[in-house]
Amino acid sequence: MGLRISARKVMSFTTEERGRPNTQDYRVFFKNSEGKYISPFHDIPIYADEAQNIFHAVIEVPRWTSAKMEIATKDPLNPLKQDIKKGQLRYVCNVFPHKGYIWNYGAIPQTWEDPHHKDEDTGCCGDNDPIDICDIGNKVCSRGEIIKVKVLGTLALIDEGETDWKVIVINTEDPEASNFNDIDDVRRLKPGYLEATLDWFKMYKVPDGKPENQFAFNGEFKDRDFAIQTIKDTHGFWKALISKKTDSGELNCMNTCVCDSPLCCSSDEAKAVVNATSPLGHSEPIPNSADKWYYYNKT
Questions:
Q1: Are strands 293-294 and 94-95 parallel, antiparallel or unpaired?
Q2: What distance lies between CA 1 and its chain's CA centroid?
Q3: Contacts of 126 (CB under 8 A, 6+ apart)
Q4: 196, 198, 210, 238 — which has fewest CB within 10 A?
Q5: What does the pLDDT look like over 15-69, one tens digit per residue?
């Protein structure tokens, strides 16, 4: 579609916290290497190395943590914020033996699972979010960290009737990254991890009174090539979104780097968005309920 992202010699990103951590006003904004505010949804390029199919990923939830942080797709500049459920901050349940998230969890920028598009394979429309990733590397990443990832495969979660792809990736800086090139390498070199991943996604909403999640392909993980094509398809949907060639609904497409987008704003406008939020304050304690264990009899 001819969209142009402003080029930079050095691609690096930093974050700026606003509000009080562990409260509903907490936000994590993003800056580029020039110190200008950007949207992690729209302004971070999807590719770190397009020729090698290396992608950028935004880490929303570090491994072993449970605060359900996510890119705020409906807010200006799409900072990270914690999801709210029934008026309270959301923490994923610890369903034994899993404690928090069992990977670094996040999303690939400049992708969008179009809720108007019915996937031919899953028979369901997209979930209206960027495509999700599960980083299986050894490093525990930081909230808001931008990493470069190799794609290994994907799982097709059907979440309340919507297609919600979970792409399995590994950080390219992981010392073992060269050994992982496809989904079978995960099965061979990290035995039990894929089974645990399926188990986690199947059960994590059960303590909230919801049924087990369902999956397309009978819960089979699809391979690298399938996953990469799926990511590229969602990148195409994003291009239509950022160009206003499709209905964005409540999504906020304000950006600072997509030069041909009618929604591109100035650095001053972006700065005004951040300045309208509260400065970083003292953290509130995490509620004790976040550490509760749930035991689920699957028989």
A1: parallel
A2: 24
A3: 112, 113, 114, 115, 116, 117, 119, 162, 163, 234, 237
A4: 210
A5: 999 999 999 999 999 999 999 999 999 999 999 999 999 999 999 999 999 999 9
